[in-house]
Amino acid sequence: MRQQTIKLLLIFIIPSISLSAQNTEINRLVKSELEMTFPSIYFKNNSTDYAKMPYAVDSCFKYIAENLDDIVSYTIWRDSNETEQLTKNRVKKLKAGLKKYSPGWQIEIQSMGKEQKIARQTINKEVDKKQIQYLLSLNSVLDISKTAGAKKNGKTEIMWNSPVPGVGVA
Description:
The chain has a 5-stranded mixed beta sheet with strand order 1-4-2-3-7. A two-stranded antiparallel ribbon has the order 5-6. The chain is of the alpha+beta class. 44% of the residues lie in helices and 14% in strands. The termini are far apart. It has helices at residues 2-32, 57-66, 84-99, 120-125, 129-139, and strands at residues 41-42, 71-76, 109-111, 141-146, 151-152, 155-156, 168-169.
């Protein structure tokens, strides 16, 4: 009887420890690496609505408009469960927002297609619904890349990490 009880406990304890370790790792990543970064613009999953960000969307458009000459690429990412049509609708919304601050300026936004920033396997490990939505928003984002050593007001700025070359243009 005792051995059966110990076996049953081990059967339930080992998987729960494994799941707890996975959640701890995801929480650590969210706190240290998986953060929303300015001036990237994030979207809610399966929506053209902007996600809640630690900064205003308009501040991103203003920044982009002020730095148009230094920006070399605009890349939009989507989650694998989202469609390319949704990406195109997001691009229209982004271009309309940017036109408020930079009328007449045309930008080309490159779609990453089905490529993802965060693997679906990682997202599916998470059990907290709020955390899942946050990770999905990190997959649905407009990233911009600047040139190395771009000068602004006499100071040299650092280049952001350039995204991977895309598979299509939106």
